User: Fold this.
Amino acid sequence: MNEEYMLDSSVWIRYFRDKNYELTPVIKELVERDVVYMNGIIQTELLKGAKSEKNYRTLKNIFDGLHFLEIDRELFDSISEAAFILRRKGITVPLSDLIIAIQCVENNLILMQEDKHFKFIKEYFNLKLHHIMAVNIGEEETLQDSETDA
Assistant:
């Protein structure tokens, strides 16, 4: 089975800004294999940060080449239920992260991310994560690379 992915804005930002980003080869391969999805939340988060009109058009052109997922009423029903469940557990996450996470769950996508909120969502929903995060251990900082958490 060909796994498909959504990349959170945290990953895209590092991909575009950090020349030595560990995931750059992986992201390039996923884009070439045509298995990367985008939604309006992530696209808007990224395009609002464009440095110039030319940069905006370049980014928009890249994103237009990806699969795009719409958000419909049925998805908002699922998002609302997820927010209700999390809230009853005492967990509050940004609505944008919840939309991204539930859209990944409903479309069986692996979410590549570097955002702490998704781990809280994963505890209660079948969210598949692929992440690389800096973790502080005592005085030193190390990179923790984990494969897909299913």
